[in-house]
Amino acid sequence: MHVVIVGCGRVGSALALNLTSAGHTVAIIDKRSEAFSRLGAGFTGQAIAGIGFDRDRLIEAGIERAGAVAAVTSGDNSNIMIARVARETFGVERVVARIYDPRRAAIYQRLGIPTVATVAWTSERVLRRILPDEPAVEWVDPSANVMLIERVVPAPWAGHPLSDLEMAGKVRVMAVSRLGVAQVPTLELVVQEGDVVYLGVAGDAMASVDDRLAGPVKAGGH
For 192-218, what is the mean pLDDT? Predict the structure, then answer.
């Protein structure tokens, strides 16, 4: 697959090198030609100096045959403009934009532009390491109707089947990590203390999940 990357910072250069190593063709655009030094002498892709949303530069980069475009410059506005040009002008289906403002990220995802909200992703994981007792949310859909959460199973739940964690229409067990090994479980799997469960949860059921885990075990929650 041919991939066009706009922005040759740490993210863009790492993407370019990983993709070329995997056998894909890559063209990377950056307004600063010195940024291409991150790619090293062995880079086999195409490096183009210019503005990332300039149609001529994008055509030079092969966007008309591209299977994907990644807009990963340091500016939200530029990344969104690039993503929209790729999607609306050139018809590229696989487009992703790096967004620093998570509020903007949600808005653009509703418009059909997949985004990566760097600050939200990074800060949440830093907080999880320094405040391990804080509830962890792995993913939230833009409408906030569904989320994927991570929880450590407390001792009173040991010996109960995973099915007891489910709530009809509200909570579903998606995966379990035990002793560092993740699996997609059956609901008959018996919980062990210290298991980490990943739950698909309706947006209005977050408090219910935490209350349920903190309170007495009730069988048949599904």
Answer: 84
**Is the distance from CB of 221 to CB of 187 less than 8 angstroms?**
no
**Residues 187, 198, 19, 72: what is their CA dihedral angle, to the nearest 10 degrees?**
150
Homologous superfamily (CATH) for 135-214: Regulator of K+ conductance, C-terminal domain (3.30.70.1450)
The identity of residue 142, as a single letter, is: P
For 23, 45, 51, 59, 91, the CA distances from 62, given in Å and listed in that order, are 17, 11, 15, 5, 13
Type of residue at 83: A
Two tokens at 144?
């906030």
Whether pLDDT at 71 is above 80 = yes
CA distance 49 to 57: 8
This model's pTM is above 0.90: no
* pLDDT at 220 (0 to 100): 52
Sorted by where each begins, the domain ranges of the chain are 2-121, 135-214
Class of domain 2-121: alpha beta
Average pLDDT on 29-57 reads: 95
User: What distance in Å separates the CA atoms of residue 6 and residue 8, rounded to the nearest whole number?
Assistant: 7
Exposed (0-12), middle (13-18) or buried (19+): which is 110, by Cβ within 10 Å?
Answer: exposed
